[in-house]
Amino acid sequence: MVTPLFERLTAAAGAAWHAYTRHDFVLLLARGDLPEAAFRRYLVQDYLFLLHFARAWGLAIYKSESLAEMRRAHSLVTATLDVEIGLHIEYCRGWGLSEAAMAAEPEALATVAYTRFVLDRGVAGDRLDLEVALAPCVVGYAEIAAERIADPGTRRNGNPYRDWLDMYAGDEYQGLARHAARALDDEFARRGGEGRFPELAAIFANATRLEAAFWQMGLDAA
Amino acid sequence: MVTPLFERLTAAAGAAWHAYTRHDFVLLLARGDLPEAAFRRYLVQDYLFLLHFARAWGLAIYKSESLAEMRRAHSLVTATLDVEIGLHIEYCRGWGLSEAAMAAEPEALATVAYTRFVLDRGVAGDRLDLEVALAPCVVGYAEIAAERIADPGTRRNGNPYRDWLDMYAGDEYQGLARHAARALDDEFARRGGEGRFPELAAIFANATRLEAAFWQMGLDAA
Amino acid sequence: MVTPLFERLTAAAGAAWHAYTRHDFVLLLARGDLPEAAFRRYLVQDYLFLLHFARAWGLAIYKSESLAEMRRAHSLVTATLDVEIGLHIEYCRGWGLSEAAMAAEPEALATVAYTRFVLDRGVAGDRLDLEVALAPCVVGYAEIAAERIADPGTRRNGNPYRDWLDMYAGDEYQGLARHAARALDDEFARRGGEGRFPELAAIFANATRLEAAFWQMGLDAA
Amino acid sequence: MVTPLFERLTAAAGAAWHAYTRHDFVLLLARGDLPEAAFRRYLVQDYLFLLHFARAWGLAIYKSESLAEMRRAHSLVTATLDVEIGLHIEYCRGWGLSEAAMAAEPEALATVAYTRFVLDRGVAGDRLDLEVALAPCVVGYAEIAAERIADPGTRRNGNPYRDWLDMYAGDEYQGLARHAARALDDEFARRGGEGRFPELAAIFANATRLEAAFWQMGLDAA
After folding, report:
1. Which residues make Cβ contacts (< 8 Å) with residue B152, sequence separation at least 6?
2. Do residues C145 and C171 touch, judged by C-beta distance below 8 A?
3. What is the pLDDT of residues C62-76, one digit of tens each?
């Protein structure tokens, strides 16, 4: 049986992978010990991130070679613009953050670095490069949440961040992430080849490192 | 009052504009005299065109500078992928053309030329360049259908192409076209300036010429 | 030994390959029987083509993943802007065509179709897609000229198009084409894989078909 | 007389402009007090920056609308690949940094953020957006060096960074920067308009902020 591409990419990223998925931000959040200021900072920047995330899937529509590929990219733009951004805004309102306030906030260095890195790989490379650059986020969040929910050290009761973990550990998001991981395999079969692996692994490792910097940017606000 | 950009662009295109909107293909269609082979050829190539039309609006999502701009581009991808392509496939089935048959057809020179010209202007320029390149299609079809429906020479009864005219002369499409024309004015206010007009007019005139070649490609099949 | 990618691509293009490389335009030119109007039409459109050819290699600079790749793309922009366009202008002057006259000429449908098809593949895909789309031109012209020069039916004395054949059959251009063919193999090793072959073959076949349409556009002017 | 666009952009950037041009890194460098580790860190990251700078001008070739525009972008790729990177490598050798060592260094967050921000504006917008995003670097370095050289507080003798200041304060670079500033005015006349100013000012201010973060990244290494 062939090892799924996502597994190969995380293995190749080595220590950088857990430096991201088990970053202090995540561990503190799971224990309910994350300073509120860190979480708020993260929420605001994640809102700004989502705008570029939608742009990335718009780019994927343009880069599609078939109607099926176009429909999948389109469904992710729809999910982002019609569902995720809305949920995010609603969720943030619960933390006292208005959409106008978030939209007015300057992008942090880590936000600029990660989002534009992804878009650059996506424009300069092909759709496989783009989806590999997005995978630490799309598939990684599902792994992060599932791992924390399974961890006995995670605080379930009275954890102010419980909703966040539940959302990404929930069936809907886990299904979306599995789907995205399978799409990587399909595209690697159609547009990949072993010769591409080193460059794809480099993109994945860089994106992973930039995602860890995103958590750190949250922590640094505390 | 400021003259709308679309009016200025059609005026600047001069004779090329009516060479497109009053092309023999259109006049024959309105009179019900268009050879069926010409219409079938057009339908198949228009299906192939729609795939690149959806890509163009995906590109516009990527090129958006605000959530509002993104939502408008997204709504046009949705309309194309979820409604127009479906209607087109259904309509073509009535003419004995299956989706598989259309997808297997090679693109005509005129189809490649128009679609890739639009995408190139869209990538190399900004979103205003992209929308100006699309305007002869998006807004032009509404003008073509409205003009023909208003023409006493148009055959209403027993015209096999009546549905086609009604679709583009109908309220829904006319509203969409008015909306697109207004969007041109908004973008010209935000990203334009008189200095840009000559280049925008050149893009519009070229796109118009390529649309006329698209009609001609249909006629040449008869 | 591995079959070079270029050979595999021409084989996969089948009859379309010779419909391009042995197009009547080429055969008539080699015999010295090409109507002058056809050649002039070709020269003017080829000038307009070169502008987009330089843009394509500029795009390749942006798409480069290493300094070596960047330098190769840059050398092709340099060759086009500093040498080829100059030679072309000088050569055309000999045929009574001024640069201003050529720049003022509208692009033919075949010119728009081929150049924008290449650029679209190049932006939507990766650098390998771009170079495969350019190969029927870059490598194909060398094959065309070498084949005609080797053909006893080719008129050597008193052939007004002899210079054109000599330029592309000459050592310099033949070396450039061999280099470009080898670059395809290198990139296929690094960014390819058998899964990509069908799509690359489709790009190559389409570009070949569009190149044949370019010759035909020349002939149609006669 | 019309105020040059560059002046309007720096005025609109407000305090952010001097936070960049008079950043501690610059002031310490001019006094000869910059820790060597800070300068080395800067040199390595500036090498990695130059690779993306060349890509940006490659993109500008693709985005050109005329042969003259293409030639200017091409000359900047040539200057970067054939001159600047070479000088940089030679200069760094004097500081004990080999090219291989620099190429192997991971990009700092500030390097990723600035370079990819520029490229994203360049792809999503038009060539004016691209050149405005590059201006804090291209034109800003000339202003920084000229201002420091004119400052009596700058140490001339025994300043290990004197060469660096002289290079950017020298006639050649000052001429290049003046040329780039004039090109902004030309493009603003052709592709601009007051409506674009707020968005262009936002791009310029963001790029300025990211340039300041680049200096800070150097300082943080000390």
Report:
1. none
2. no
3. 999 999 999 999 999
Site of tokens 């990766």: C126
The candidate with the shortest Cα–Cα distance to A27, out of A137, A134, A165, A135, is A165
- pLDDT tens digits for range C104-161: 999 999 999 999 999 999 999 999 999 999 999 999 999 999 999 999 999 999 999 9
Q: Which residues neighbour C135 within 8 Å (Cβ) at sequence distance 6 or greater? A: C6, C9, C180, C181, C184, C204, C207
List Cα–Cα distances, C35 to A57, C25, C60, C148, C169, in angstroms. Answer: 51, 9, 36, 18, 22
pLDDT tens-digit readout, D46-100: 999 999 999 999 999 999 999 999 999 999 999 999 988 988 898 899 889 999 9
Cross-chain residue pair A59–B62, CB shorter than 8 Å: yes
Residues from chain B contacting residue A70 (CB–CB below 8 Å): 51, 54-55, 58, 81
Those chains having 3 or more beta-carbon pairs within 8 angstroms of chain C are: A, B, D
Q: Which residues contact A18 (CB under 8 A, 6 or more apart)?
A: none
Using a CB–CB cutoff of 8 Å, tell me whether C129 touches chain A.
yes
State the pLDDT at residue B1: 66
Task: For residue C137, indicate whether it is catalytic.
Answer: yes
Instruction: Summarize the confidence of residues D151-157 as an average pLDDT.
Output: 95
| D195 min Cα distance to partner chain C (Å) | 29
Catalytic residue at C211? yes
**C107-140 CB burial, b ≥16 within 10 A, e <16:** bbbbbbbbbbbbbbbbbbbbbbbbbbbbbbbbbb
Query: pLDDT tens, A55-64?
Result: 999 999 999 9
Tell me the mean pLDDT in the region A184-190. 95
Could you report the predicted ipTM of this complex, rounded to two decimals?
0.95
Task: Decide if C108 contacts C45 (C-beta within 8 A).
Answer: yes
Q: Which two tokens stand for residue B54?
A: 């959806």
Contacts of D among chains (3+ CB pairs under 8 A): A, B, C
Rounded Cα distance between B218 and B35, Å, is 10
Q: D126 and chain B: CB distance < 8 Å anywhere?
A: yes
**Using one digit for the tens of pLDDT, what is the confidence trace for C33-64?**
999 999 999 999 999 999 999 999 999 999 99
Q: Do residues B67 and A85 touch, judged by C-beta distance below 8 A? A: yes
Cα B211 from Cα B113, distance rounded (Å): 9
DSSP string, D12-59: HHTHHHHHHHT-HHHHHHHHT-S-HHHHHHHHHHHHHHHHHHHHHHHH
